[in-house]
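May I ask you to comment on the folded chain given beneath this request?
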Amino acid sequence: MPLRTDRVVVRYEITFEAPFHCGTGLPRRLVDRSVQRDATGYLFVPGSTIKGLVREACEQIVRLFGVESASPHDEQAAIREFEGTHWLSCLFGSRLHPGTLCFDDALLVAEDRAFFGGAGGGTYLSQQVSERTQVSLSRLTRTAKPGLLFSSEFGVPGLRFAGEIAGTITDFAMEDAPDTTYALVLLVAGLLSVDHVGGSRSRGAGRCQIRTTAIQVNGRDVEAKDCLQWLEQLEYLTYACEGGGVWCTS
C-alpha cells in the first residue's frame, strides 16, 4: 500500500458550555490566576492547548482499536524512531522528528469580538471573564489550608472561538475514498472527541463542543461525516503498517 502526502486544512469552532480557564500562569492586577488574552484584550485558546488535547484523544482512539500508541516520553519508543517514524509522531511530532501540522490559536469569532468590543472599542472587554475566589483544601484534614486563598479568572460560557489546523499528512490512502487517509480520519475524530478545554477540568470547567467548519485536502472540500464513516477502518492499521505500528518512513 503506497504512501501519499496531502496538504490538509481543518477549520473548527469551539463553543464553551461552562466557564473555562486557559491560564497564563501569571497574576493580573488583583487576580492570582489570569486567562490568556491577545494584544487587543480578547480571549483566545492557545494552539498548543488544542494540539495536546487532540493528541491525547487520538491516542485513546487508536488504543480502542488495538493499534500501538507510543508515549512521547518512552525512551525505547524514541530509539525505535531511528528505524521509522511512529504514526502519531508524523502528525504531532516527537523528540526526533518535527510534526507536520500547525495548530493555530483559536481566536474569538468576529460576532463575539464585536459584541464585547462595543462602539467605543473595548468597552465591554471585562465582561468576557468572571472572577472566582477559591481555596486549597488539605486532603488529610479535608479543611482549608491556611494562607492559600486565591482568585481566578474564567471565560464566560457561550463564547465561541475559531481555529485552524494546517499542514501536510503522509499516510496510506483509503482505497474507496481517494481524498481520505487513515491519519485524516484519526485527526478529525480526535478533534471532535475533545469535550473539555483548559484548566480546572476536574471541577467541571472548560466543557465545550467542537465542530468542523471546513476540511480541505489538496484544495478539495471534504465533509467531516465522510471522514468519520471510515473510523472503524483504523483497526486495519495493525496489518497495514509493517513493523508493528510504524506509519511513515524515516
